Hints:
The protein has about 300 residues and is mostly helical. The chain has a single domain, classed as Mitochondrial carrier domain (Mitochondrial carrier fold, Alpha/alpha barrel). It is about 70% helix and about 0% strand. It has ten helices and no strands. The relative contact order is 0.13. Mean pLDDT is about 80; it is low at about 135-145 and about 250-255.
Amino acid sequence: MLEQPFILAQTRIQSEVLSVTRRFRGPVDCLRSSWRLGGLSSLYRGFVPGMLSAAIGPIIALRAYTTVFRDLAHLNPKLFDKEGELPWMYETAVMMCAQGSTTWVITPLELLARRRHIQALPPPPPLISMAESLPPSSVVHHAISKPSSPGAWSMARTIWQQEGFRGLYRGHNATMLRQGLGIPLAFAISNPVERMLKAQEFSLDPPQSKRKLLPWEDAIVGATYGLTYACIATPFDCVKTLTQTEGAIHSTSQPSLHRTFRHTFAEVYKARGVRGLYTGFSMAAPRMTVVMALDWVLAGLVDRAGIYD
Length: 309
């Protein structure tokens, strides 16, 4: 709930990274303009598909992770240490497989959410690569036309009718890279922080026991995970936003580009450099750091209460 306005603003800023001029001066201006455009309802456009993606994705990942973990324990128990844990390399590989399985569900949902995010806005200026080839009349028409506002499921039917299966999976490669690399690598970096904190004597537990982290320690681990994930995921999210929204923000007089991940990545890098790929990072990093810190604290409190037992 709290993340949604910031995710919407990030999508809107990333969707114009290849535009000749920028509609928004920054994240705060984007949030302010979105509020003026339609109030609270404007800030929560795309909430339903976004919420479904955020809720279903972790469930699928956890189920897949548990299945692969159990199968490995059955096939090769020697991989596990005395505490029943895998070495971090195997742990990362298992997590990559689990996260990869979620992309087949979350890609269409995130596509619908992103298109809803940019739906109420007037079309952006022409793209850098197309500005010189467009006649002045088409640019004027592009600036004053207003998009229709179908709901998410009506939008899904339209995409299916016009583009089929491929249309619903625009940006799937970026999702695979974000989930398959971002989440496992973020865990791989935050796990040593967790082990280091567990080795310290900040609690009253016996030194030899496998103690649980204190809330402030959980917050440090969660913040480390969130910041690492934002650093890895932002370029993939930027490319994904451009790929998934290009059909919605271009006028019908412009050709459909159907960019691949590699083409879009190269185009953004050529036009804006590394800074262009990290468009929206100033919103993603604080959001992920705070949210993941809170998630880790809550999970730790539940664990210490014995609810998982």
